[in-house]
Structure formats: C-alpha cells, structure tokens
Fold this sequence. Notes:
By secondary structure, this protein is mostly helical.
Amino acid sequence: MIVTPLYAGLLALWFMVLSIWVIMGRSGPDGVSLGDGGKAEMTRRIRGHANFAEYVPMVLVLLGVSELSAAPGWLLHAVGLSLLVGRLLHGYALSFTAHFMPGRLLGMILTFSALLLAGGYCTGYGVAKLIQ
C-alpha cells in the first residue's frame, strides 16, 4: 500500500496556500518586507506558515517509516488524515482569522494525535525488532 505520497502531496498544496498568504502580506504599499512589522495580522500569517513547517516534516517522516515497516493501512490513513485535517483547521484558524477559533485547538489535537500514533507505532516496531 502506498499512502505517504498522497498525504505529503495534499499537505504540500496547503503549504503553498500558507506560503502565498505570507507573500501577499509582504506585497503592496502596506506590505512588510522583513519580519512582521509589528502587525498582528502579519504575525498570524507567519506563525501559521511556520507552525506547519515545524510539525509536518516530522510526522511525514514517521508516516513514511511506518509505511516502510508494513504498518496496517488503517493506521497509515488515521495518521495521514489526522495530520491533514489538523493542519487545515489550525492553519486556517491561525492564519486567516483574527480571533481564537475552536478549529485551532482541534487542529493541534489532531496534529498531536498523528504525532503520537506514528511515533508510538515506530517506537513499538523498533523495540519489537530490537528484542527479536
């Protein structure tokens, strides 16, 4: 079963959206060429983009390792969907809105769930192979 490329590709598309959103905040007469310029909206755009970049690579690596280790398909899809939906909710709530939304909290819960599931599987698999 090939699962990781599907979620990696979909997440890459969302990363492009977040990237373009930051670039749009930097363009125009009121744009901020470096940093956030003390503007709360720009800070949110940058953090939404950066937060994605901080979490997604590790979970995708764990997902790929899990897949190579013959993890069950349901687990791979649970991790991939949790990460995808979590990052969509969190990125939208943080980058595109001016106030706290339940989506931001749910997005982090789903992201942490993906990290825990994939990390737990990889750890268990590694320990099982070690004691064989």
